[in-house]
# Entry
Amino acid sequence: MSKTILGISAFYHDSAAALVRDGAIVAAAQEERFSRKKHDPRFPVNAINYCLEEGFVSPDELDAIIFYDNPLATFDRVVENALAAGEEGRSQFLKAAGQILGDKVWVNDHVQRALGSLGREGQVLFAEHHMAHAASAFYPSPFERAAVLTIDGVGEWATTSLGAGDGKDLRLFSEINYPHSLGLLYSAFTYFCGFKVNSGEYKLMGLAPYGEPRYYKAIVEHLIDVRDDGSYRLDTSYFGYLSGMVMTGERFAALFGGPARQPESPITRREMDLAASVQKLTEEIMLRTARHLRSITGESNLVMAGGVALNCVANGKLVAEGIFDKVWIQPAAGDAGGALGAALLAEHVYFDRPRVMTHGGGDAQQGSYLGPAYTTSEVLAFVNRHAYPHTLIADQEERLAVVAEALAEGKIVGWFSGRMEFGPRSLGARSILGDPRSPTTQETMNLKIKYRESFRPFAPSVLRERCAEYFELDCDSPYMLLIAPVREERRIETDRVRFDDGDDDMLAVINQARSDVPAITHVDYSARVQTVDAATNPEYHALIRAFEALTGCGMLVNTSFNVRGEPIVCSPEDAYRCFVRTEMDMLVLEDVILWRHEQPALNEQEDWRKTYELD
# Structure
């Protein structure tokens, strides 16, 4: 008998919904894409509605609705933490308790109000947070058996969990509990370096190659005790998250030479070196943990999820070390992916239904193209309603030739094609594209398109069959979750620079060409690689092939279709709005092409920075 299951994550950050039918993923999306509020934590009404529409299912036809977290276990942690913190933890307790008692405990009521039904089970099921992460990593993976590693800030009590999966069976057998958390340690340094917690960690990772790990010794001598098996304990006296509303305390600031950097202030050598130091530690812990997990499970494959699994640099080092034969990482590794994991848990554990592996040895994630798509007819209805000048090119080869020629001329292109990605990465469905050969592409994209920090690198989308010609990478990387070195013969050697304080000094080095594809080559000669395969995304693959035919270069610069502080675009309207408020040259909406210079002047010269909260 068929089973249709709705998974939900909400009330912390990145709320989402996912629909699974008979073990196959039908749809998944984050609420932020519809609400246009970045990292929207609210109950994902819009994402749920999309999933139900995509699956042609009504709420009362759902066999189960499952939440990704156990609110009562989380409340138990909050209470125990408050008792340990005493009066100092009062404000934190009131906020956390209010959130849990006001929302999470009443998930049944939220579902009933939003859907008018609790499904055929008559009540919402609840998963454990790290089991939801583990399920999101194991069940869609291409492996019949695998070791399982989940690492994040905290879920109920667990912060790091080790386990194994075999067929439909999944178990976690070891964990590290709050307040000891690698994810919270990384977030503490994110906060101290002036970035926003739960969204700025990838900025810290991108900053690390500019620095030297000169604070590493101080971290391991004072903040954390790391053992050979990768387990660890923090000295919580240095941190503020146990008793207050900030991540770090006075002892932390004293250890690292003064107070935290203020957001938007100049980045100094201290921040670069702090980033390099905590990144080195993170990599070491993940490698030690992986070796231990391989030893105790005997498994040859590894799957990963949790927010720390989005650390592409550490992932790349893990793959390069060869500890496991193969590694698969859930592309929506953070809390959004918990919705998918919860639905798959209900399918295989609660309903005890068998797992069916995909044919051909691939994964079941479908390229993570699990969000809404729009037809050319819908796009035409939108542009015609507003009388936006456009060109319809229904022939794919002709259309891609026009786009490839624009890219080869150095134009920046907004690319909107097919189903939206699920997870934080744009993978060629909602992307901004550029020419990787140009030494000015990175600066143009950062300052005139994305309006973001100049130091942040861009990723390449490379033809799967050309990957080895550009990168030292021996496996596929379809979800842009692995950092790999640019091949030696493509590099342009530059002197290693120690930065003085100040943005101008950094910019001079950022704009140096380091390879024959300078727009995607980071300061340490690395790149965050996406391999593009014809079977998973045939149109995107064909576009890169068309660009290669013109230029001899089998890759494009690919960054997310948004500006700083804004979620990735979902609809044609979102894409157009982003397009006209930046200096993109071309917008491709399915079979429709719009040129920036042909568009009408904005009726209202609205500054997008007033519309979206900067992070």
Confidence is low (pLDDT under 50) at residues 604-615. Residues 168 and 352 are 8 Å apart (CA to CA).
